[in-house]
Each structure stands twice: as C-alpha cells, then as structure tokens.
Amino acid sequence: MEDSAPRRSRAAFAGLVGVSQVLGLASVVLTGVWMGHFRGGFAWNGSKQEFNIHPLCMVLGLVFLHGDAILVYRVFHNEPKKNVKLLHGIIHLLALIMSIVGFVAVFDYHRAAKIPDMYSLHSWCGMTTLILFCLQWVMGLMFFLFPVASAWLRASYLPVHVFCGLALLVMSVGTSLLGITETLLFNIMPTYSKFTPEGVLANVLGILLVCFGLVLGHLMTREEYRRPPNPEEEALSVHFKTLTDGGSPTTP
C-alpha cells in the first residue's frame, strides 16, 4: 500500500511523457503535410517551396527537439548526470542547427522574392527567440557541460538556466502560433473563414503545439517528477543555499 502512490506517480509520468511525444510528433507531421500538400512541397531554389522549409524546421527544432532536450532530465533520472548533460546538449545542438536552417531558408526566399525582412511581430519574436536560444546553449555549455565557471557561479546560474529553458519553449510555441496565423492570412485570407481544409489543419496544428507546451510545462514543474539528487546536485544545492542566505560559499 505504501508503494501505491509512487507507482501511480510513475505511471502518470510515463503516460504524460508518451502523450507529449505523440503531440510533438503529430505537430511535426502536420507541419510537413501542410507545407508539402497544401503549400507545394519543399525545395532550395528561392521559391515558395524554400519558404516551406522554414516552418517545418522551426517546429521540429525550436519546439519539438527543444522540448525533448528539456525532458531528458526527467526521463533519464537514473542515468549518470554527465551522460544526461551530454544528451541534453546534443539534442539542443540539433535543435539549433534545424532552427538556423529554417532561418536561412526564409531569408533566402525573401531575398529572391524581394520581400522585406524583419517587419512583422512574428519575425521580431522569432529572431529574439533564436538569439536567446543560442545564448542559452552557449551558457549551458560553459557552465554545465564543460564548466569553466566556479561552483558558486554555477549554483547562482542554475535556476536561471532552468527558467530560461521553459521560457524559451513558451516563446517558441507563441512565435509558431503567430507564424501559423500570418501564413494563413497571407495565403488563404478570402476563404479562411469558410473552414477550408488547409485552415482547419493549421488550426489543429496550433492546438497541438499549445498542448505540447502545456504537457511539457506540467512535467517540468511537478516536484515528484524531478530527478533524484546526486552528489553533484547536492553540491550545487549547498552552494546555492549559501549564496541565497548571504554567505560566502567555497569552491570545492
């Protein structure tokens, strides 16, 4: 009977992780179907087909892979911390590469079509998100994966790093929603209100992205799903507690 609550918690966690993966993969697939079937497919030739690479790469990189990179600390909570850090960094690197490809594609298309850059709210939010994502990855690399900072600095930055990871996921989902709306208004504005198949599919995609973000947020903020402490994390906790209490932590 005493183990029933932890078992239920583990079962709920596994179920929610599964739901998050279904939502994330479905979002990527729907983006591919939207761009491939309704928008003419993909190419790298300065045409609208090159633009179609942009939403697919952004949903795959800044939303799905970014979310999964955050989730590895919950899923692999019994694996050595160093291995999980490495996996976290690699997935984030893949997300960064995909995002850069997506940005290059849209700028290349704009250049070929003589369309102005960086005038919409979507583009401002997207650029801000990408720049902060790059900064977050570099800071994580220097502070945690290949630390060059002292334990005192790592302890003070750790909660900021965790918060920024979730904040960037929220920004990525929000920017994606702006992009979906912008694309629909540019391409099917006269028929959008008539529940055309493309419009309905894009709306469903937006709902899936929101649900993916909500499930990830729930998994990352529930205390019972946290990774069990290990000596490294305990050291960081001690340093952070000393820091917040106004003391002067020592470097091990």
Structural summary, described in words:
It is built from eight helices and no strands. It has helices at residues 4-38, 48-51, 53-75, 81-113, 121-145, 151-192, 197-221, 231-244. With 252 residues, it is an all-alpha fold. It has one domain: Four Helix Bundle (Hemerythrin (Met), subunit A) (Up-down Bundle).
Please give the domain count: 1
- Portion in beta strands: under 5%
Radius of gyration: 21 Å
Largest sheet: none
Indicate the overall shape.
globular
Instruction: Report low-confidence residues grouped into runs of 5 or more.
Output: 236-252
First-last Cα distance: 42 Å
| SSE sequence, one letter per element | HHHHHHHH
The average pLDDT score comes to 90
CATH fold group? Four Helix Bundle (Hemerythrin (Met), subunit A)
Number of strands: 0
State the CATH class.
Mainly Alpha
What keyword list fits this structure?
252 residues; mainly alpha; Four Helix Bundle (Hemerythrin (Met), subunit A); 80% helix; 0% strand; globular; disordered C terminus
Outline:
The chain has 252 residues and is mainly alpha-helical. The chain has helices spanning 4-38, 48-51, 53-75, 81-113, 121-145, 151-192, 197-221, 231-244. InterPro entries: CYB561/CYBRD1-like, Cyt_b561/ferric_Rdtase_TM.
